[in-house]
Amino acid sequence: xxxxxxxxxxxxxxxxxxxxxxxxxxxxxxxxxxxxxxxxxxxxxxxxxxxxxxxxxxxxxxxxxxxxxxxxxxxxxxxxxxxxxxxxxxxxxxxxxxxxxxxxxxxxxxxxxxxxxxxxxxxxxxxxxxxxxxxxxxxxxxxxxxxxxxxxxxxxxxxxxxxxxxxxxxxxxxxxxx
Length: 178
What we know:
This protein is of the alpha+beta class and 178 residues long. It has a single domain (12-171), classed as Peptide Deformylase, CATH 3.90.45. It contains four helices and seven strands. The protein has helices spanning 26-41, 64-67, 131-144, 155-171, and strands at residues 46-48, 58-61, 76-86, 90-97, 100-110, 112-118, 124-130. The strands form two sheets. A five-stranded antiparallel β-sheet has the order 1-2-3-6-7. A hairpin with a 5-residue loop joins strand 6 and strand 7. The chain is globular, with a radius of gyration of 16 Å. Removes the formyl group from the N-terminal Met of newly synthesized proteins. Requires at least a dipeptide for an efficient rate of reaction. N-terminal L-methionine is a prerequisite for activity but the enzyme has broad specificity at other positions. It comes from Bauldia litoralis. This is Peptide deformylase. InterPro entries: Peptide_deformylase, Peptide_deformylase_sf.
């Protein structure tokens, strides 16, 4: 069972810009493992640290089973990720978000990107990502910058989503209050 709770709209923390991870150590690796557990339990294909209320520049993702349900899990941990380059060619994909449950919309993003990051051992890496992985990484890196996928929608649609989740938050019982 996931130890981390995923925060949802309208939580203001989702708009925070995350701080770089200073040092990759056992605590960071344990946190990454907990993030992966929360992502798989949700279930989702990506999760940024800010989505569990921690403003650190790190994310986890696993798109292996998105295209092939029989595939083995292939988790990735990206610490301090930075998009170095993106294609001029865009692609429209339907996106959802664990922090905006049960809402999906089509978003256009670059079809391929190159990302620099530190892996779970603190080693500098670069990857070329295309397809669903590119979309997932861009979505999660946006979270680290305080941006949500609904920001790509028209103001009218975005405002409707925000109003809906704000209303739901007011109607739901307060949990975690002792």
